[in-house]
Amino acid sequence: ETGVTQTPRHLVMGMTNKKSLKCEQHLGHNAMYWYKQSAKKPLELMFVYNFKEQTENNSVPSRFSPECPNSSHLFLHLHTLQPEDSALYLCASSQDLYSPGQPQHFGDGTRLSIL
Amino acid sequence: QKEVEQNSGPLSVPEGAIASLNCTYSDRGSQSFFWYRQYSGKSPELIMFIYSNGDKEDGRFTAQLNKASQYVSLLIRDSQPSDSATYLCAVNGWKNKLVFGAGTILRVKS
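Predict the joint structure of the above. Result:
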């Protein structure tokens, strides 16, 4: 596999469920990101990890909990979500955070629907 | 003021015409600028990046940057129906974060 892979592609869950989104990158990158994309709104950065360390939490509610066990894998644990959390969740990676201008490469996203 | 602004469109152009997509940004310290293409239901795909003032060409795509005016644009020559997508402008900001515009919908009519 190449690039950035996200699973599942689609997820429907109730507000009381607990689920996890998974992201894996095969690009040898050291920085990974979670974004939320809602209809007609800009991509919203949620979390940033660099060399497995979280460097950014963009005021994300605690019902979203990220985990980065190594530079290739990133998870987003979900619990007690709200209907407004329904969106496309995108994972991205880049070489690292230190070199300016590094492009980010995106996975295909997980389409999340909260009932 | 939004950090990165784009006209939401849709921008409609006939097949074979030049499509011009524009983006303005508010952070004068921004150094890197990216254009992503996103088809419906798909992830953003990097198509161009530019760091220096002026033009940068890659095939049918030309990125133009004017840091004094805080303006970056993307020209698509000989537009094809397959170019129909949402084009996202992204600007490298504080702590190397990318800040995205909301995107411009482009429709190329055959």
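Chain B has a mean pLDDT of 93.
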